[in-house]
Amino acid sequence: MSIYYQHDGKKEKVSDTLHIRMMTQDEARPLVEAFLDKCFMARIRVCYIVHGKTGTVLRKMVHAMLQDHSLVDSFRSGQNNEGEMGVTAVYLTYR
Q: pTM for the whole thing?
C-alpha cells in the first residue's frame, strides 16, 4: 500500500513495504533507515521489510537495527499470510 504525505511543502509517496532481498548488508542498511524515517513521517503504524527466507544475514541485520531504534515500538516475523520468516513487521512508535 502506498501513502502520500507532505514533506517540505511537497507531496511525497511512501510504500508500507520495503524489499531488500538479494542485497548486501551495506546496500540494505541505509535503505532500511530511510524507509523507517519516511514511514514515520507518513504516520504509517505498521510497515514491512521483505528480506527473504533464504539465509539469515539480512533478517539478523534488520532485527539488530530495529532492536534499539528510536522510531520502533516493536517488531515480529511475518505471519502465515505475510511471508512468515521472510518478512519482518515493524510497529512504529508515535509517543
A: 0.89
